[in-house]
Amino acid sequence: MSNYYTETPTTETHLFNQEHRIPVYGGFWERFAAAIIDGIVMGVINKVIQLAIGEIEGAVAGILVNCLYFALMESSERGATLGKMALGLRVTDMNGGRITFMQGLGRYFGKILSSIILFIGYLMMVWDDRKQTLHDKMAGTLVVKADRFQDQL
User: Fold this and answer.
1) Which of 39, 129, 144 is nearest to 83 (CA)?
2) pLDDT, position 150
C-alpha cells in the first residue's frame, strides 16, 4: 500500500506532497457546523423550488439540486460547499488534490448510507486518524483545513 503523503504528483500539484506536508484534518464540530450552514442554504433553495413548481415536483427536483450542489461544489477548484468555505474546510483526494465529480457524487450518496446506519458513518471520524467518515472512505476523500499543515514528525 502506498503512502499518500509521499506519492509523486502526476499532472496536478497536490497540496500534501509539497515539502511532505501533513494536513490538518477537519474536526467533527467544524464539519457539523458546515453541514448546518449547507442545510440552511439548501433548505431555502428547496423551499423556493417547491413554491415555484409544486410540492411533489419540488421534492424530486430538490433531490437533484442537492446532489448537484454537493458534487459540483466539492469537485470545484475551491473544493468546498458554502458551509465548508465558511469554516475554512475543503474536500481533497488522498493526495490533497481536487476531487472528481464522480468522487463528489460518491460522497453525496455515501452520506445517505452514513445516515441510514444510525449516523455511525459520520461518527467514524471520531476514532479515525484522518477523521474520515464512511462516505470519505467510500469516495477516497479527506476533509482538511484549507492551507493549514502540521509539522511532520
Assistant:
1) 39
2) 65
Residue 140: left if φ>0, alpha if ψ -120 to 50, beta else—which one?
left
Q: Residue 3's pLDDT band (boundaries 50, 70, 90)?
A: very low
The answer to whether residue 6 scores a pLDDT higher than 60 is no
- Residue 1, pLDDT > 80, answer no
Contact 26, 89 (CB under 8 A): yes
* Residue 81 pLDDT greater than 70, yes or no: yes
Question: Tell me, what's the pLDDT at 19?
Answer: 59
Q: Are 26 and 128 in contact (CB under 8 A)?
A: no
* Cβ-proximal residues to 63 (8 Å cutoff; 6+ apart), any chain: none
Tell me the residue type at 121: G
pLDDT of residue 153 exceeding 60? no
